[in-house]
Amino acid sequence: MKAVDMLPRLIDRQVMGVLDPELIDLLRDYLSLMKVVPWGDQFVMGTHAPPFPGPAFDRFMNGLIPDGSDDGPTVTTTALAITNRCPLTCWHCYNAGRPQIDLPLEDLKHIVAQFQDIGAASIVLTGGEPLIRPDLEDLCAAIDEDSVILLNTAGTGMDAARARSLKDAGVWSVGVSLDSISPDEHNRLRGSPAAFDNAVAAIGHVRDAGMYPYVIGVMRDGFLEEERFVNYLLKAQEFGAREVHLLDPAPSGRLVGRDVPEPTDDLRARQFAYQRMAAEHEDWPILSFASLFESQEWFGCAAGRGFIYVDGAGNVCPCYVAPISFGNALEEPLAEIIERVVDHVGHPRSRCLSHVLKDDITAAASAGLPLGPATSCAICLRRLGPDRAPGGVSRLETILRRMDDRLVGVAELEAGYTASAGTYDERWLTRAGVAVDRLMDLMDFQPGARVLDAGCGTGFTTRRVAQAVGPTGLVKGVDISDGMLAEARRRAEAEGLANCEFDRGELIETMAAEEPGSHDACTSTWVLGYVSLKDFAARAAHVLRPGGRVGIVCNAAYSPGEVMGVVMRMLARHPFALRRAVNFPFPSSRRAIRKTLIKAGFDEPVLETGAFTMHYDSGRDFLDQLERSGEAEVYRQCIDPKHIDELLAEFVTRIETACRTPDGILITYEYFVITADRVQ
Fold first, then answer.
1. Pick from 230, 208, 222: which is nearest to 267 by CA?
2. pLDDT for 257-288, tens place per residue?
């Protein structure tokens, strides 16, 4: 089937943290060039992305189109050469000349654990020839399901038993290098008389073991001539490949200093034509050109932005084919090195990085490859920068840069929550009080403490904290909504609480303006998602004294699941009813929350999850409650007015179908309760 037919399912499965009409248009146009094949209970749209649905695919989409819920670089694909050794002498080898001593298994495990911590959706194990290492399966077994494992090999050393062993260790896909369907030509290009037979046999073994088999070809002169190209595609399929992944040669490794031409406009046009042709043929394998995915028309060059390569000695590079290094993963934390990579290489561009830097790399190559960090940084500062975009700015980057102009947010939230202020406690907070109860237990407020309640709303939490810290303490509540603040002041006065005050202001700006270290504690309940955890954590660390405690209650991402499922199914059915963008980056994983808080300057957080269920008489009753929230006002602003009535009626019907029980409409809300202490 055509991959574009998957677009409603992508929206339905809530894999896009940001809902934006221009992003939907981009995905529709790109997917119209692709095809999709079923793979067990999943679908594969090519090895640029993990199979869908699954946690790795969600990671990939959240990295490709970041919503601000995670912290740090949005690296979606990482590659690790588990050895630089190889029995072949391939004509284009990008790894040629690198150290030949293998890293111990424990060092490799340490690197892949860091890959997963930075959010890698796909982990590619390569070389050299990775099958040389007998402990390959042990490394694979150390990677959990948040990432998929791909293995790149020339086929040497793959037999039926090894393929089954790799499958059992968790490998999802194996790419086998095949530069020609002529045995003599392939053997010559790979420097071995057995290379072709090994490659073809490996494809079959991978297929028979139940892994996703694809071939990787490096294109040469004449490769895209139609008869030759189609014969290659169909022959690869005959060998057992489900996908053909094609690369342009790059001036790296064995080709440093050589004349390696870049694709011409004519060749790029042929690639587009073949991509469309393959998508139309149900009986052909998936076709994927790396240079199309990374072109200006789509997503731009991923080197040092969405992709990181670590060679067999631990050197961290922006790409396989960009032999510049920014540090060694055995000597300092990978996340710190990647920040350095992003600072120097992460500027938008659509031209292959190896071609952008080829003259500088050639001039310095006598010192050995990859180039060291000092030389690499100097070259990138000279050739790259935020005001330069070799090859042009990609369509995705252009959309993301303009997104703020389309986002609805603060003004709509303020209007919605002001309108709901009078009923907010009774209709929501008292019914969701179990989460705040737990937060109060964990915070352990002391008499006399000074506390900032960020996003205080009607003061539900503020008043409880004021009671806990007593008359010698002080609680300051901050919110954007005049209506909520008026209600907060009224309720505090009615309870006789003289130790709390309320100020109006945008949350992040107000926290930044507070004196550093001026508070003993900082709380925030039901606010994160409207501001990002990254921004909030940084500001909380700013206002807290050393040892001060932050406490958070927030919705989990995509909760309540029943309701978000209904909303997403509606958008899947009407994907172009959106006219503006919406982004609520609710925290999605323990790993991301922990990483963000620790990076902001907190000790190991306490992280708990919980859930509560709320009862409504009917779908209409639930809609009435929902429309009294600020969030509903944001979604209303996103929808084309001519679709509003139709969608609201459909929403009520779908809620009745999805959530009706003998006891009425039951909606379950999942949440996080989080506390962490400021580093002493």
1. 222
2. 999 999 999 999 999 999 999 999 989 999 99
pTM: 0.85
Strands (E) located in 422-570: 450-454, 474-479, 500-504, 519-525, 544-555
Q: Is the dihedral of CA 473, 479, 484, 486 positive or negative?
A: positive
Query: What radius of gyration, in Å, describes the C-alpha atoms of the chain?
Result: 27
Give per-residue pLDDT as tens, 75-98: 999 999 999 999 999 999 999 989
Distance CA 552, CA 532 (A): 12
Cis peptide before 87 (omega within 30 of 0): no
Q: Quick one: which H or E segment has residue 48?
A: none
**Cα–Cα dist 399/195, whole Å:** 45
Report how far residue 379's alpha carbon sits from residue 361's, in angstroms, rounded to the nearest whole number.
8
For residue 442, what are the CA distances in angstroms to 435, 470, 607, 675? Answer: 11, 18, 10, 7
Per the structure block, which two tokens stand in for 396? 């995705």
Q: State the pairing for strand pair 316-317/307-310.
A: antiparallel
Q: Name which of 123, 170, 184 is nearest 309 in CA terms.
A: 123
Chain mean position to CA 145: 15
Closest CA to 110 of 310, 307, 303, 306: 310
Nearest to 307 by CA among 319, 316, 293, 292: 319
Which pair of structure tokens corresponds to residue 327? 């540090």
Phi, psi of 677 (to 5 degrees): -100, 140
Question: Please, are residues 500 and 466 in contact by the beta-carbon 8 Å criterion?
Answer: yes
Burial class of residue 104 in the structure, from the number of CB atoms within 10 Å of its CB (0-12 exposed, 13-18 middle, 19+ buried): exposed
Q: Quick check: 551 and 674 in contact, CB under 8 A? A: yes
Please answer whether residues 457 and 523 qualify as being in contact, where contact means their C-beta atoms are separated by less than 8 angstroms.
no
Q: In Å, how far are 18, 119, 592 from 62, measured between CA atoms? A: 9, 9, 12
259, burial (CB in 10 Å: exposed 0-12, middle 13-18, buried 19+): exposed
CA distances from 41 to 48, 116, 330, 331, 453 (A): 19, 24, 38, 41, 46
β-bridge mates for residue 610, sequence order: 671
Distance in angstroms (rounded) separating the CA atoms of residues 614 and 635: 22
> How far apart, in whole angstroms, are the C-alpha atoms of residue 171 and residue 461?
48
Find tokens 């200006």 and name the residue: 296
Cα–Cα distance measured from residue 529 to residue 587, given in angstroms and rounded to the nearest whole number: 7
Pairing, β 450-454 against β 519-525: parallel
Strand partners, 324: 371
Distance separating alpha carbons of residues 370 and 353, to the nearest angstrom: 14
Contact between 187 and 179 (Cβ < 8 Å) = no
Percent helix, strand, coil in the chain, to 5, is: 45, 20, 35
656, two tokens: 């009745």
Integer Cα distance of 607 and 550 in angstroms: 12
Question: For residues 148 and 127, what is the distance between their CA atoms, to the nearest angstrom?
Answer: 18
Burial class, 148, CB count within 10 angstroms (exposed 0-12 / middle 13-18 / buried 19+): buried
Q: What are the pLDDT digits (tens) for 535-587?
A: 999 999 999 999 999 999 999 887 888 888 788 778 767 767 888 888 888 88
Burial 506-524 (b: 16+ CB within 10 A, else e): ebeebbeebeeeebbbbbb
